[in-house]
């Protein structure tokens, strides 16, 4: 009866190529030690992005990441296409980030699963 008490459940580990449900499982687990990075341009980000994602357009990605994120942090990155996502992940890995996951399908796959997204309105009240 007591032999299962030693097993501690853990969230799914970071994978080099992750599906949106892998990220959602970690978020649902309450995993705080990860960052979601959206590398699309700010117009696309403002229109719709994965809830909690940070906007770091591809041309600013490495500079912004190295100024604000620890190299050992788990990063989930997505762009407009899986190819753009792969380029962003490669740039982060070259900059010294070892825990980088390419989020396959990006925000489109996230939305298709019915997961929460955010948008930034241009007409915000001051």
Keywords:
five-stranded parallel beta sheet; 126 residues; two-stranded antiparallel sheet; Oxidized Rhodanese, domain 1; globular
Question: Can you give me a brief rundown of this structure?
Answer:
This protein has 126 residues and is α/β, with parallel strands linked by helices. It has helices spanning 20-29, 42-47, 61-68, 82-94, 106-112; strands at 17-18, 34-38, 49-50, 54-55, 74-78, 100-103, 117-118. Helices cover 35% and strands 17% of the residues.
Query: Would you tell me the overall average pLDDT?
Result: 88
Quickly count the domains. Answer: 1
CATH C-level class: Alpha Beta
Query: In which range does the helix fraction lie?
Result: 25-40%
In DSSP terms (H or I, runs of 4 or more residues), the helix count works out at: 5
With strands numbered from the N-terminus, the spatial order across the biggest sheet is 1-6-5-2-4
CATH superfamily: Rhodanese-like domain
CATH topology: Oxidized Rhodanese, domain 1
Choose one word for the global shape. globular
Helices and strands, in order, run as EHEHEEHEHEHE
Q: What share of the residues does DSSP label as strand, in percent? A: 15-25%
**Spatial separation of the terminal alpha carbons:** 60 Å
- Per DSSP E runs of 2 or more residues, the count of β-strands stands at 7
CA radius of gyration: 16 Å
**Any low-confidence stretches, pLDDT <50, length ≥5?**
none
Derived from helix and strand composition plus strand pairing, the structural class reads alpha/beta
Name of the CATH architecture: 3-Layer(aba) Sandwich
Q: Describe the biggest sheet?
A: 5 strands, parallel
């Amino acid at each position: 009866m007591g032999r299962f008490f030693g097993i501690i459940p853990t969230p799914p580990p970071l994978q080099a190529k992750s599906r949106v449900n892998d990220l959602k499982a970690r978020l649902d687990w309450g995993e705080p030690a990860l960052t979601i990075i959206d590398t699309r341009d700010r117009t696309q980000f403002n229109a719709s992005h994965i809830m909690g994602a940070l906007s770091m357009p591809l041309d600013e990605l490495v500079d912004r990441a190295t100024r604000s994120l620890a190299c050992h942090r788990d990063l989930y990155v997505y762009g407009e296409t899986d190819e753009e996502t792969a380029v962003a992940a490669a740039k982060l890995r070259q900059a010294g980030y070892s825990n980088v996951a390419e989020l396959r399908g990006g925000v489109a796959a996230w939305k298709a699963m019915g997961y929460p997204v955010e948008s930034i309105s241009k007409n915000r009240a001051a």
